[in-house]
Specification:
Blueprint: E1 3-8, H1 18-23, H2 29-40, H3 46-55, H4 62-69, H5 78-87, E2 90-99, H6 100-110, E3 114-123, E4 126-133, H7 140-152, E5 159-163, H8 169-172, E6 177-181, H9 185-188, E7 193-195, H10 203-206
């Protein structure tokens, strides 16, 4: 029996928001943070909020972005949760409205099997302020989850989804076990399990 567990990255596997940490380099953390909060509460269209926030990052060196993304603080219990789920037979995947610079690197540290996220466009080693990729829209996670379920032959009943914000609602729709992690109210309402403590290690025992 195939099983699948899907985690959000920012504020779930990672303790913070990657885009805010990058924006801090330009002194724009507060502005970006306000937009992020509204988007995660479901008050703003995810695509609009993402493209606007990334436009503010124009001019940062890719090398600086990579340095930041390779030194992010991972959530307490993230490694343990992933290894525990794998022992239970789950394929573990990360879906992120954030960026490959962070999720690709974290895959080798945290141990998940694959990651799907967005790409910060650059020219000559400098960010252009443009973004593209697999997780650009509010429904992207749900669409990708359905693709993986078909590919891996996994039922909704054998799918776990873990997240914290409004853009995780679409993947909750296709998972029987919906875990909100220190989440915004809009996601808690849709969850079957709510975790309020910043510790992911409890997840294998809860399912």
């Amino acid at each position: 029996m195939n099983k699948l567990a899907v985690f959000d990255f920012d504020s779930t596997l990672m303790d913070g928001e990657t885009i805010e940490i990058i924006a801090d380099e330009l002194g724009l953390k507060d502005e970006v943070s306000k937009i992020t909060t509204k988007a995660m509460n479901g008050e703003l269209d995810f695509f609009d909020s993402l493209t606007y926030r990334v436009s503010l990052l124009k001019g940062i060196k890719v090398s600086k972005v990579d340095e930041i993304c390779h030194n992010l603080p991972y959530m307490k219990g993230a490694k343990e949760a992933i290894s525990g789920l794998k022992k239970l037979g789950y394929t573990v995947v990360c879906f992120s409205g954030g960026f490959q610079n962070a999720t690709n690197y974290a895959r080798n540290i945290l141990g998940y099997d694959a990651d799907f996220s967005n790409i910060l466009h650059s020219k000559g080693g400098i960010l252009t302020g443009q973004v593209g990729g697999e997780m650009m829209f509010s429904n992207s996670k749900g669409l990708m989850l359905q693709r993986l379920q078909r590919l891996l032959n996994v039922s909704c009943a054998n799918t776990v989804a873990v997240g914290d914000g409004a853009n995780d609602l679409s993947m909750f729709e296709y998972a029987s076990t919906k875990i909100s992690f220190c989440a915004k109210p809009v996601l808690k309402k849709a969850a079957t399990i709510c975790i309020e403590e910043k510790n992911l290690a409890v997840i294998p025992d809860l399912i």
